[in-house]
Fold this sequence. Notes:
The complex is a heterodimer of chains A (131) and B (724).
Chain A: H1 2-13, E1 28-31, E2 34-36, E3 40-41, H2 46-54, E4 63-66, E5 72-73, H3 75-90, E6 95-98, H4 102-110, H5 114-117
Chain B: H1 9-29, H2 37-56, H3 60-77, H4 85-106, H5 113-132, H6 156-164, E1 175-182, H7 193-203, E2 205-211, E3 229-235, H8 240-246, E4 254-261, E5 273-275, H9 282-292, H10 296-299, H11 307-312, H12 341-367, H13 373-398, E6 399-401, H14 403-406, H15 409-420, E7 424-429, E8 434-436, H16 437-458, H17 462-467, E9 474-483, E10 486-493, H18 500-509, H19 521-527, H20 549-558, E11 562-568, E12 572-580, E13 585-593, E14 596-601, E15 605-609, E16 616-618, E17 624-628, E18 631-637, H21 638-642, E19 655-661, E20 664-670, E21 672-680, H22 684-687, E22 694-699, E23 705-709, H23 711-723
Parallel strand pairs in B: 7-9, 14-23, 18-20
Antiparallel strand pairs in B: 1-3, 1-4, 2-3, 4-5, 6-8, 9-10, 10-12, 11-12, 13-14, 13-21, 15-19, 16-17, 17-18, 19-20, 22-23
Amino acid sequence: MNKRKQGAATRTTRRGRDAKTPGADTEHKTGSGAFAIAAECTVADAGSLKAGLAKLLDDSGVVTLDVSAVQRIDTAGLQVITTFVRERESHGRQVEWRGTAPALAAAAKLLGLSAFLKLPTPPGQAVETAS
Amino acid sequence: MTIDLTQFHDAFFEESFEALDSMEAALLKLDIGAPEPELINTIFRVAHSIKGGSATFGFSDIASFTHSCETLLDELRSGGMQVSLEISDLLLKTVDVMRAMLRSTQSKQPINMQKVSDVQFDVEMMIAQKNNAPAKPAAAPVKAAPAAVPAPAAPAPAAAASPATATSASTAPPRWEISFRPYRELFARGNDPLRMMRELAELGELTVNVDLGALPGFAQLDAQSCYLAWKLELAGDVSEDAIKQVFEWAEGDCDLELRRVGVETAPAVAAEPVVVETEPAPSQAALADAILSGTAPAIEEPKSEPAAPVATAPTLTAVKDTKPDASIGAVGDSGSIRVSVEKIDELMNTVGELVITQAMLSQLGAALEGGNAEKLRAGLAQLERNTRELQESVMRVRMLPISFVFSRFPRMVRDIAQRLGKQIDLKLTGEQTELDKTVLEKIGDPLVHLVRNSIDHGIEMPDVRVAAGKDAVGTVHLDACHRGGNIAVEVSDDGGGLDKDRILAKARQRGLVGPNDILTDDQIHDLIFLPGFSTAEKTTDLSGRGVGMDVVRRNVKELGGKIELRSEQGKGSRFIITLPLTLAIVDGQSVAVGTETYIIPLISIVESMRLKETSISRLSGHNEVFSFRGDYLPIIRLHELFGVEPRARALHEGLVVIAEGDGRRVGLFVDDLLGQQQVVIKSLEVNYGHVEGVSGATILGDGSVALILDVTGIIHAASMRAAA
């Protein structure tokens, strides 16, 4: 219940998004070096997520990933994001986060990836002890 | 002289598990307020005999625990206490605990004493509460036992997040170390580790360590493959079964190792690793236990107890025919014996051979001329009759009523409904319908999935139902019946039904359906069987991740069955699974291609026809199609597929058998139809190896071997050829 409300609130702040169905998940570039991750990040969408991120892999500046639209994410989706972050960090390139997504935070925590991804904590959730 | 009691242990465990099943069933039937005395007696007897048995064998922990239960039950029996919802919930928990204790003792694993003493404490509190003062019932604290009954549902992220947090355990409670290394194709099989973590986090305190070692560079990453692996620590009193159940659907798609550490009761066994084999799923193992012990329902139909075959097989244990109070043998009230499955299989095999020999003799006899030929033929006809009867009898020995599978649902539905806050009435009908044990074992998990789906997605919340003018209590109906040579198992609900528009929209969005394609209802329904397909707005820990329906269909197909779906929006859905009665025999249509004979299972055949030349069209390349009721179906020439010289090459000279597999229809081009017959299936895999498009072989009356075709495999093989 809570989750859905939060998602809806986030969507209305994004241009034009509120007009779409919850499943609408085309990816939007929000500017140079920034990337908005789609609402749906499951195994079915992992390919397009990867393609979207690939364009930013070699971006020399700071890449900002906007996660505020993320509604649904599974292991495959997180794996793509993790690989992206790791690859960039191994080349000394930074990734920053914008917005929060409860679904993403919960999934990352359950999969033991929160510490690695250094995700921002959504309001109202306890900080994870580093493992 | 001393008697070695250990030889009786197996029988004790088997009988106790059986008895616990009946205790659970009786508890679920118990009416709050006005319980039937006979049910309470049944429940009491179970506890009593388990207590007696375990005391005899020196399992003192079990004896002490069951003693407490017995005391509580005695109060109920004597009317000193009334059956309340609280008590029946608690008694269900004691069933779980007893089962877990017996299982641990049986496998010589340490018993999780913390859990035991928790529940025992609750039981004793309940009794003490009655003895102290009936005036202050509110004082009784009934703690929830989290492992037995899953915790009440809380919003997924919040609930999952807190147990997953790494915290240091205070007094080194027992915990599990789990090494979970998925294979690459885990995702493709519809599994999501996230779901498993979420379920584990519900069982106890979960610490997650991810291993990124196998993760390739970004460019090399295949987004659909799983590269991650995990080392997990699960603290709390969690049974091994509960953990295995979480990984049930990933069996065969991962390496899983469970290791129990830090159990204070038995330090010697503490660090023994338990490697999970991939074959027997825990629930199936439990089911197999129940089935092996062949209890009550089989006995209720004396006519289905063929005396001859059973008598030839030596008994394992005789189930005593005793007076109610004396033993848990009271579950069944006529004589029966336990026979190991291998012995029945052996018998089955021998009878199969006998059928073939008899068919050969009949064919020989038909050609004989001379003085005694007539007499010989009469004798052969008699032999044929007797052989058929023998075959049917042996087959019936392997048959068990489907109630073995159905019996697990009342508890499951009750638990899930409670968790989701829905009101559900579970209706079971046709429980006495019998089917082959192998089929029975394999149909359990798909049915569990369908029932879970029905409760989670199908049945609406009570307020929604009332608003839609329905009864607040939803109905989930499980039905089984014989239909021709098959058995039909149906799971239906009176919930919301499938939302066709949403499914279609989702499929369009995912590119599975073109934007302008018009689909029939059946085609739309078919979409939900695609791997990873889900329209759920939010995933729950029960379902909605699009995992499962494809697995359900795969399981059903592996059994040679099919699954259909009928759904009406707002009114509910029906899943109908059609299964063969047995895997040992198939109803087949024999067809001739050149000098070879092939068997096509009747269940896959739609119809057979002779083609007119005008209805055939040739497409580019080598592909041929024909029009069939407004559809164009591809033609697969069996002679080409199997490299046989046919009698006819022109399509209008032979026949086309329209067969269905994997939701697709094709025309199989053959020379002639020979006849319909039941054939005994001989496994090709066991005797030779797997051949694409062939599911097995059989021996015909003339002694020649005919291959049994697997239509799905043929369609697959042919499309590979067409693509090549």
